[in-house]
Amino acid sequence: MIVPPPLRFGVLGLGRAGVSMLPALRTHPHAVVAAAADLNPTARAQFTRDFEVPAYDSAEALCASPEVGVVYIATPHQFHAEHCLLAAANGKHIVVEKPLALTLADCDTIIDAVERAGVTLIVGHTASYNPTVGAARAIIRTGELGRLRLINFAAYTPFLYRPRRPEELDSASGGGILFNQTPHQVDASRLLGGGMLKSVRATAGVWDPGRRTEGACAALLQFDDGAAASLVYSGYDHFDSLEFRVSTEDERSLSLTSHGATRRALNEGARSPDEETAMLSAMGYGGPAMRSVGPGGMGMFQVELGLAIVSCERGDLRLVADGLIIYDDEGRRSLPLRYDRGVPGRGNVFDELRSAVVDGIRPIHDARWGKATLEACLAIQQSSKEDREVYLSHQVTVGD
Ligand SMILES: NC(=O)c1ccc[n+]([C@@H]2O[C@H](COP(=O)([O-])OP(=O)(O)OC[C@H]3O[C@@H](n4cnc5c(N)ncnc54)[C@H](O)[C@@H]3O)[C@@H](O)[C@H]2O)c1
Fold first, then answer.
1. pLDDT at 2
2. What is the largest CA-CA distance in the chain?
3. Which of 100, 125, 247, 327 has the maximal Cβ count within 10 Å?
């Protein structure tokens, strides 16, 4: 049997997302890190030393490289549309970080470009790639627990106090949780619920006058078959839903005094936007504060989903760090999961891309799917602003 060659990835953007994705690329059996590009010379130099492949100083040079078959776009939101068009024009397949773009019009331009170029685009990574979400979806699809009725995600994180570029604190430029964390919750809900949301009612909060972007949100998403998703997120660094990850062992090892630590570190390290941007740069590739995600890491616990319970007519599923717990009429049982192609969640992004490119299987998280997730996130913002339910019109099904 002829084994198709691994996909050759060019990493566009060596900041936090790039740093998190590289271990997944490095450990995936069907992926090769072929090149990178970033504006930051320190990141480029360190990357070339580590991977012994070129690091370009422009997106144009990376997208033109014959060594690259797939461009993984991990640049800030506002560049996603431009960089997708550039990659598509060069005939490259694309993995683009969420959100696909910041407007529905830009999503349409991207959809046109990839369709015309005949390349595959998937929007990843989102929490919906997590193997626990996939396993929950598989159980829902068997019908053994009856119809899906309710999804409950409740996440509490230090999101707002991680070092940020100024535009990440400006909602109009895609800052705040609605474009950064809510897409994870919306995307996973849509995957579990079949994709077709009907309407959204939400309240989002800007609670810190020093960081004037949405840091908290409660949203009710209604599917067209009557199922609902309740999404709660707070990024204000008080309670931390990592506590929901607990097994007995975790409980002992988890430092419960770490709450608020991210805000304290920011307050101590950054007294101006420039100092904050410098703190952020230090987290990029080769920077002194670089932290990567290894195959062990958080296991399969999805920080962005937090407490995650999926209710069907005859049973509940709880998503935990090492699989699912199923509660039905017979009692409670565990379904441990293993992911053996590197980093769970992130590795699954490459699995989906490869199935599309090599086996011709239509990806779930394509550009139309990404547009539908963005539509729901924009509707959450609008619902909160206008204090009313917002109806959706660009939703697509999971496609099965
Ligand atoms: N899925 C996840 O878990 C996850 C996590 C973090 C970020 N993200 C997403 O990744 C994207 C990047 O976020 P980040 O937190 O890594 O930002 P970041 O600021 O840490 O990194 C962005 C990098 O892109 C580089 N860059 C900017 N413009 C460029 C250009 N024109 N050409 C080449 N390089 C350029 C910067 O120098 C920087 O190194 C965002 O869309 C964000 O939503 C996703």
1. 74
2. 61
3. 100
Q: What is the pLDDT of residues 116-145, one digit of tens each?
A: 999 999 999 889 999 999 999 999 999 999
Amino acid 251: pLDDT: 46
Which residues sit with their C-beta closer than 6 Å to ligand 1? Answer: 12-17, 20, 37-40, 43, 59, 74-77, 79, 97-98, 125, 165, 180, 280, 284
Kindly give the distance from the C-alpha atom of residue 366 to the centroid of ligand 1, in angstroms, as a whole number.
20
Q: Three-class SS string for 262-313? A: HHHHHHHHCCCHHHHHHHHHCCCCCCCCCCCCCCCCCCCCCCCCEEEEEEEC
Closest CA to 192 of 230, 163, 164: 230
The closest-lying atom of ligand 1 relative to the alpha carbon of residue 57 is: 33
pLDDT tens per residue, range 54-67: 999 999 999 999 99
221, β-bridge pairs: 200, 229
Enter the pTM of the model. 0.94
> Average pLDDT of 311-328?
94
Give the ligand 1 atom nearest the CA of 59: 32
